């Protein structure tokens, strides 16, 4: 993390508050139940998932966005850092290997997701341009079909005067968490995105910047 960041005293954040459940709409409850299995609804089949390889030994299995930690910046403001757990699946069909599901734990803030998405779009754009240049119609057609999903929205401009209150509210954080989790799963479980943007994805996972 940047040297301009300081840890605040632990602040418990209950993203699902049982006391407020009566006020939660049906749509909100359904949205909380988005799972990896539902990826097929968005064109990511199980077959694609099995070929979404991080390297010759492991496939991406799923991503979970969980713990949210509030941190303080040099200007006195706060921002959230999210824990992301990426679960891997061994390529080997050996029983011992199949029983192991290694996990990668990384921590990212929303702005880093924004940069990650921009890098994905830029990489895909450059690859598409190259495919068009060499007149590879089949590859161009496949690349044109790749969609990178949007991220959960930032605080709207008309709420900036109360930015900290909006950005740190439990409901806002809950919606952002599931939006970030959906985005991560869509990206790492999509074979076409992984095959074409593997360097960008691995850079996001390995980067330690704050």
TrEMBL record:
Pfam families: PX (PF00787). GO terms for biological process: protein localization to endosome; protein localization to membrane. PROSITE patterns: PX (PS50195). InterPro entries: PX_dom, PX_dom_sf. GO terms for molecular function: phosphatidylinositol-3-phosphate binding; protein-macromolecule adaptor activity. Gene3D superfamilies: Phox-like domain (3.30.1520.10). One of its GO terms (cellular component) is nucleus-vacuole junction. It comes from the Eukaryota. Residues 60-210 form the PX domain. This is PX domain-containing protein. It comes from Huiozyma naganishii (strain ATCC MYA-139 / BCRC 22969 / CBS 8797 / KCTC 17520 / NBRC 10181 / NCYC 3082 / Yp74L-3) (Yeast). The lineage of its organism: Eukaryota, Fungi, Dikarya, Ascomycota, Saccharomycotina.
């Amino acid at each position: 993390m940047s040297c301009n960041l300081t840890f605040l005293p632990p602040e418990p954040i209950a993203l699902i508050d049982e006391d407020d459940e009566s006020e939660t709409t049906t749509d909100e409850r359904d949205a909380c139940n988005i799972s990896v299995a539902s990826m097929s609804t968005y064109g990511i089949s199980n077959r694609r998932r099995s070929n979404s390889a991080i390297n010759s030994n492991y496939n991406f299995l799923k991503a979970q966005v969980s713990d949210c930690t509030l941190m303080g910046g040099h200007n006195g403001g706060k921002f959230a850092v999210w824990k992301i757990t990426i679960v891997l699946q061994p390529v080997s069909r050996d029983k011992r290997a199949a029983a192991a599901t290694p996990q990668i734990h990384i921590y990212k803030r929303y702005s880093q997701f924004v940069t990650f998405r921009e890098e994905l779009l830029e990489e895909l754009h450059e690859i598409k341009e190259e495919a068009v240049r060499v007149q590879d119609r089949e590859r161009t057609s496949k690349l044109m079909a790749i969609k990178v999903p949007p991220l959960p929205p930032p605080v709207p401009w008309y709420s900036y005067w109360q930015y900290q209150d909006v950005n740190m509210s439990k409901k806002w954080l809950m919606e952002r968490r599931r939006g970030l989790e959906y985005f991560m799963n869509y990206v790492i479980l999509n074979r076409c995105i992984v095959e074409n943007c593997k360097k960008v994805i691995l850079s996001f996972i390995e980067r330690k910047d704050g």
